[in-house]
Amino acid sequence: MPSAYIKGIGFYVPANIVTNKDLERHMDTTDEWIQERTGIQERRYGTRHQETTSTLGTEAAKKAIANAGIEPNEIDLIIFATLSPDYYFPGCGVLLQRQLGINKTEIPCLDIRNQCSGFVYGLSIADAYIRSGMFKNILLVGAETHSMGLDFSTRGRNVTVIFGDGAGAVVISATDEHFRGILATKIHANGEFAEELAMINPGSHGGVHAADPSIYGYNEAEYGETFISQKMLDDGMIFPNMNGQLVFKNAVAKFPEVIGEVLQASGLEKSDIDLLVCHQANLRISQFVQKAMGLRDDQVWNNIQKYGNTTAASIPIALAEAVEAGKVKKGDLISLAAFGSGFTWGAALIRW
Ligand code: UT7
User: Fold this and answer.
1) CA–CA distance from 186 to each of 122, 254, 255, 335, 337 (Å)?
2) What is the pLDDT of residue 26?
3) Which fold is adopted by the domain 181-194+242-351?
4) From the CA of 47, how far away is ligand 1's center (Å)?
5) pLDDT at 231 exceeding the cut of 90
6) CA distance 161 to 30
7) 160-217 pLDDT, tens per residue?
C-alpha cells in the first residue's frame, strides 16, 4: 500500500492589508482590544471584483504544483475546502479546475465544508484515497474570502475583527517510502453546537431548528422567500454569529486531546513533535495548546498576527510559510490541528 506525502506546498494572500486601526473607522473597536484578546494586528482583504475564494485558491495551487515539480494536468483529484465559496453551487473545485486550465482532463472535484477543520478533513480524505491507490496526485486547497460577507457595523465586531482572506494549497502524492508523509489523521464532530458558530441565513432551514422560527428570518409565504427573506436583509440576519467564549473553551480542550490521539496512533510522544501548526483561530488558543503540549516557542508556528483567522486556509498558509522560512527539514515530525464551526475538529501527524 502506498503512503501519502506532501510533495508541494504554496500559499497566496491578497496584497491589501487591513489594520486594526482601519477597522476602528467602521465599528466601535480598538487596536488594543483586538491585539489583547486575539493577537491579531492586521489581516488581508481580497481586491473587490477581482479576487474571490477560487482565484485566491488558484494562485496558491499554482505555487503548490510548481513546488511539487509536476504539471497541472498530472493532478488527478481536486479537493477544495472553504466556507466562503464564490457560488452557493457549484463549488469552487470546478472553478479552480477551469482556472488552472485543466478542465479538459475531466478530473473529479470534491468540495468540502468543515470550516476551520476543512484542511485537516481534506488531508484525511486525500490520505485515504492515496493509500487505496485510487489517485496519485491530489491537489488540496483551503481558501476563504471572508471580507465580502462580514458585518462591518459594531453589531458584528466580535466576529468581523477576527477573519481575513487567503489561500493555501498542497499536492499530496503517493510514495513507496513508508514511515514518511502522513502518519495519522483523526477527525471528529459534535453537532450539538452547530448554531454556536454559524452563518444561518440565507439557507434552506425554514426555521425548523429553532423554537421560535422567526429568529432565523422564517417567512410565511406559500412558496419561496424562505431561503432568503426581506426580514433577513432588513434585520441584518445574514452574517456569521459566534459564541466566542463557548468556542474558546471547547477549542482549548479538544486541540490537545486530538493531537494526543494522532500521537498515540503513531506510537509517538509529545516530545517527538518538531513543529506544531495549529489552525490560527486566536493567538491565545495557540499559546494555550503550546503550553498543554509542553512545546517551546520555536516549535510552534503562528502567523495570525499578520493574516487573522483564514479558516480553511490558515493551516496550509502557516505550514507553507514555515517551509519557506526553512523551519521544516526532511524527517521532521509536524503536527497539524484544527477546531471550529460544527463543532468539527481534527489533527494530523506528518513525517516531512
Ligand atoms: O476559527 C473558528 C473558531 N473560532 C474561535 O476559536 C474563536 C474563539 N473565541 C475567541 O477567540 C474569543 O471568544 C473572542 C476573541 C471572539 C472574544 O473574546 P472574549 O474575551 O471571549 O470576549 P467576549 O466575547 O466575552 O466579550 C467581552 C467584551 C464584551 O463587552 P461587555 O459585554 O463586557 O461590555 C463585548 O461586547 O468585549 C466586547 N467586544 C469587543 N470590544 C471591542 C466584543 N468584540 C469586540 C471588539 N472590540 N471587536
Assistant:
1) 11, 12, 11, 12, 9
2) 95
3) Peroxisomal Thiolase; Chain A, domain 1 (3.40.47)
4) 27
5) no
6) 10
7) 999 999 999 999 999 998 888 999 999 999 999 999 999 999 999 988 888 887 777 7
Q: What share of the chain is helix, strand, coil (3-state, %, to 5)?
A: 40, 20, 35
CATH assignment of 3-175, among 2.102.10.10, 3.40.47.10, 3.30.300.160, 3.90.1170.40: 3.40.47.10
CB 168 within 8 A of CB 119: yes
What are the pocket residues of ligand 1 if the criterion is a CB atom closer than 6 Å to any ligand atom?
A: 29, 33-34, 37-38, 116, 157-158, 161, 197, 244-245, 247-248, 251, 281-282, 285, 309, 340
> Could you tell me the pTM of the whole model?
0.97
Up-side HSE of residue 84: CA atoms within 13 Å toward CB?
28
Contact between 281 and 303 (Cβ < 8 Å):
no
